[in-house]
Fold each of these.
Amino acid sequence: MTKYQRIYQELLDKIKTKEYKTGDYLPSENELMKTYGSSRDTIRKALQLLLQNGYIQKVVGKGSVVLDSERIAFPVSGISSFKELKESMDGTIETIVEEFTVVPADDKLKDELHMDDGNVYIIERVRSINGEKIILDKDYLNGNIIQGLTKQHAQDSIYEYIENELNLNISFSRKEITVIPATKHDKEVLDMLDYDLLVCVKSYSYLEDATLFEYTISKHRPDKFRFVDFARRSQ
């Protein structure tokens, strides 16, 4: 191995053995240069390798912060409620309903939900995992289709209510994933640490008859998730 690869491996071993824990900052480049008797270029190559492999994130003015390498797998394909995703997660998981309102659809929501008229449920929920608020979900549901929804359903599982109480079949969704700057509100309700960006998943969900019933904006703190999918090549 080259010298920078050896330094990379030593730093990685310290991350994996929790000598450098998630959220800790690695020693500065100057400190690492003294520790390993190496040039700045060599240290930067080692740090770049840690960055590329998802073990650290560079934070301007602060250095290199250690990321959680055991990120939660969040499926891109398929449709799952958060309650269903909880089954594959470890730790203490909590849903906090920040907003539950029913309002007449404005022009923007009519366009997003393909509605002519009627009411829309606006539901904002914060997801806390092991005491950290790291997901912010904002759901907009067509009140002409989804009726009788309550705050308790939002606290528990909206999809469970739709399928088991309304007997509607949820079939498919269209998703768009982007990275966006965190807003002032995002920073107020989420534990953002030093992060300024969020992974945003916009979803449009449809019933079996291809009726659009829900538009969702789901924001995730970037250090806690990996987005996974399965793809098959066709010719």
Amino acid sequence: MRIGEIAALVGVTSRAIRHYHHIGLLPEPERRANGYRSYGVRDAVVLARIRRLTELGLGLDEVRDVLGDTAGRELMEVLAELDADLARQEAGIRERRRRLAALLEAPVSDEETVPPALAELLGTGPPTGSPSADRDREHLTLLDAAGMGGEVRAALMRLAEDPAVPVLYERLDALAGAPVGDPRIVRLAADLVAAVPDEVLAAIGPDGPVVPGFGEALLDDWAPAQAEVVRLVMASLAERMAGTGDGASTGDERSAG
């Protein structure tokens, strides 16, 4: 993604991103041969956290402490200090304190600095130590920053509660070092597509919260074999949303495996 694309995805300005680069808050990515910076999903994850923390009222030095833990302070400690400061200020900051209290009560870890509605979704389903599940949670956080609506979150609740989902994540984890031609790829992609309820696709719609360049950056965030699974899933779900997929290709892929 270019700087304008990642800015649109996370909901900040290109000027703010350049400032974060200047003060060392956000590492500057390598530039392509044409001179443009090339941002990936990892950059967007950090940028989304910076935006959320600044919206809560933290200064950039406090944000730096939270992200890098350079001062040895945990996020909850910093937020508690902010709450004490807000308590001494005028009534105009009461809405910020309410948002802070909601974050402190959210059923997620310190690093999951997300809005309460998204925290409820991320806290749904059984706990898992799957790296793929953790990565998917980060991607959901980015989609929420890009404008994922309440209908989409509600539809995803059913998917998160599916007991088969942790097993699918484990199968995706197992492909981390596999070649792109691994026969497990097609079978897993078909099973992942089958696990997505129709109401999720209906809620997302053809104009979902995606900006140009996000799909390519998403694939780059996975290992090659895992990225191939994600690519097949994205293609099949796009067919279903467009009304052109009749499920035949999914069946063929299963039988081919």
Amino acid sequence: MKWLTGNTAEILSALSEENKLTLEDNQQVEEQVQKIIQQVNENGDQALRAYSKKFDQVELQDLSISQETIDIGYQRVEKGVIEALEAAKENIVSYHEKQKQYDFMDTERPGVLRGQLVLPLARVGVYVPGGTAAYPSSVLMNVLPAKIAGVEEIIMITPPSVTGIPDVILAAAKIAGVDKIFQVGGAQGIAALALGTETIPKVDKIVGPGNIYVATAKKQVFGLVGIDMIAGPSEIGILADKDANPVYIAADLLSQAEHDTLARAIVVTDSVTLAEQVEKELYRQLETLPRKKIAEKAIEDHGRIIIASSVAEMFLIMNKIAPEHLEVQLNDPISYLHDIKNAGSIFLGEYASEPVGDYFSGTNHVLPTSGTAKFYSPLGVYDFVKYSQVTYYTKDALAQAKDAVALLARKEGLEAHARAVECRFARENNETMS
């Protein structure tokens, strides 16, 4: 695990060099994805079946998953898992219901009504990755906020498999309230949601994580549809003082490192002694970790221990990193809450372990990565609504405003704008519009 020491300016400079974004796109992936989208646009379901055979080694007759298949999958999942998913759902719903926003109208000026309507999206597509792991928690996190927002129809897609869609994914979809499920994945699945095919309906927005092809496809179809974000590898940042528990810190670092060899695990502390203890404990825990190879490479390549000169400097550094997950393992952690400027999800105290947020607390685990917490937010109910503004003026109210409107319009060289207001009073003033 690499250590970064020195003054704060030197540490920030080193981090900046490490985290420079590559401006050059992966041109090969971009071109492949563009061709896939074009094929889906031209050939619809036929292209989806061809790509399923090519990429997933599955020949499909029916792209849709029947309700009977969903029900059977649900029944096969052990009772304890169903109960845990239901409990997680309860927490996710109770948290996200507080994010709901409502219409407003104001009548501050006589004859003028202004307002805002909060309108749910009509149809949303949720991408659920396939491959070696199944993530039912991500189904709940993506679907339930959309349900709370009032989305009329939720379409879920997930890659086909020779062994079928995992039962636990089908169970999570049933519990969350997905309306339709289709077995199609990759860039072709994103294209199908964005464009629509004979079988898969076009959606208004696509959410959910995926590999580089899925992420690239989401980027390319943005504009045709909305997307949530372009997610990068998982990351965790931990602020810790000399009294923090190195066993807990090491365990939480590994909870993210086991996701992916590209995952980032970072500790910022003002205690060299704690840093040494954390590093020692981390490698001890690694020895018995089932996903040791993945976690070890992530720690070696992207793990960082940063030594700061003070708690204030610790926050300065971490705010520059803007981690996806931020743990504050300091004495009286709640008192530091307003020192945090950039973080996707914040975990306060030694018992708010990051996996609690991944699965159970109710906060969302679809979060901004790679420093984008500086301008992106966690997935929420607000991602599944849009806003329409409302204006109403009486004749008397417009009469008071018309001269200012016309003046500003002409200042911008837009004569028709000015006339559109003035024509409503031309007859009274015995004027003609010319």
Amino acid sequence: MLTPHLVSTAVRTALAEDIPWGDLTVSLTIPADATVTTRLVAREPGVFAGGPLIIETFRQVDPLVRVNEIVPEGAAFLAGDVLAVIAGPARGVLTGERVALNFSQRLSGIATLTARFVAAVAHTPARIADTRKTTPGLRALEKHAVRAGGGANHRFSLSDAIMVKDNHLAALGARDAESTTAALSGLRERAGHTTSIVVEVDRLDQIPPVLAARPTGILLDNFSCEDLRAGVALIGDRAIVEASGGVTLDTVGGIAETGVEVISVGQLTHGARALDLGLDAG
């Protein structure tokens, strides 16, 4: 959840980086009493995210700057649309514009890409989810942008849920069906009934010994669509079925049609391109 504290902290960190001891250009060129009105304009179509960060950026730079007519989070827009109007002391507007743009361009890019993935599976019940492949320090913001684009959030951190991957199983000495079940045995009791347990597999024959450990979900990693269908049938309603690995806009529709319930896509955050937005005066 994008809380006021998270927004305030992210903006404060960004401003400390961008204006550590003031805006030299603005302080020496712009009169203190000058005012300006600017518009946040889309140069290309997309889905908006980052509004709270825009507002907080200008609030911290100069509380007299006003952000008006800002579009809602998750709103779709076309090239040329005005997404917000920023007006007030010119020094504050000009000093805060790059940080505000950086946040909104980055987050709108993630929201836009997420919306494309969501649209590609709209004919199925499958959900699109993000991963932990996020920019260090910006995870909460980027996961917020995924939600703005219509996606779902996977676990936020390593503290939120149990996800046993191939390296965990290897470290536990799980090399066959019997040792895999033994390695996972008792995990449900140790974790407690409220903790989600997901186990990753990369072959169909790994599914039965994992199911014996009663996980919440099974992640089918880098499976072909044929094997995904077989995995879904084998698991049935005994666990949530998730697919991941190499998911693209070209392949996600076919993956969703196999019957998996969740498709996790690292590209949503680590591969999204910043959207082209501009702050135009006048």
